[in-house]
Amino acid sequence: MKLKKLILASGAIALAATSFQGSAADLEMSTNIAAGSNYVWRGATQTANASAISGGIDAAHSSGLYVGTWTSNVSGGHEVDFYAGYAGEVADFGYDVGLIYYGYTESADADFTELAVSASYNVLTLGVNYTLDGDADEDTDQFVSEDVYYYAALSVDMPQDFSLGITAGSYDFTNDSSSNSTSYSHYQIDIGKSAGDFGDFTMSFSKAGKEANSDSDDIPTDDALVFVTWGKTF
Description:
Layout: H1 2-19, E1 27-36, E2 40-41, E3 44-45, E4 52-61, E5 65-74, E6 77-90, E7 93-104, E8 112-121, E9 124-133, E10 148-158, E11 162-174, E12 181-194, E13 200-210, E14 225-233
Antiparallel strand pairs: 1-4, 1-14, 2-3, 4-5, 5-6, 6-7, 7-8, 8-9, 9-10, 10-11, 11-12, 12-13, 13-14
């Protein structure tokens, strides 16, 4: 099962990398680092509400193809992601289609791959992420596949180099073994401030709403999370 995921992710990256074999002027490389008081992903803390340090490398071609990798500490180990895709614009509309492979050093059974599709217009982005492969063990129901995450995000530039971001999402889980479904929704508000060469600072408020009939450990509690993050791109 894990071999299938690795072939899927590496195949997409190899395809994008092959298309990069043009002029060096058409290729843009960047790196990023960040440190935060918490690592919150889709309304759920990944570090048991502890601090996180992360970083990544990205390559984007003028054709719209891109590849990248990103890593962060998580509870009990580290997360290492690989992604590749294609992004572009048609008139005032933007679009992005890609694959994301999430790897976890503390438990290979937690690895999974998503198909990510999003569309944007002006300050609004709508997106859907679909889990292509995420079964931990075909004989157990400890992990789920065919999950779907829907979200809408609003990003607005404000005076004095401030920015405002609002994200609302819904995560639907499907358990292949028991045919049971659980889900939760969440929203997050981000207030950012650019400090120029010193990077960007963000204060975030995140809250998830847990289904009353769900007792899965994969579903976050409905406690509100407040955290701060500093990041910089080179």
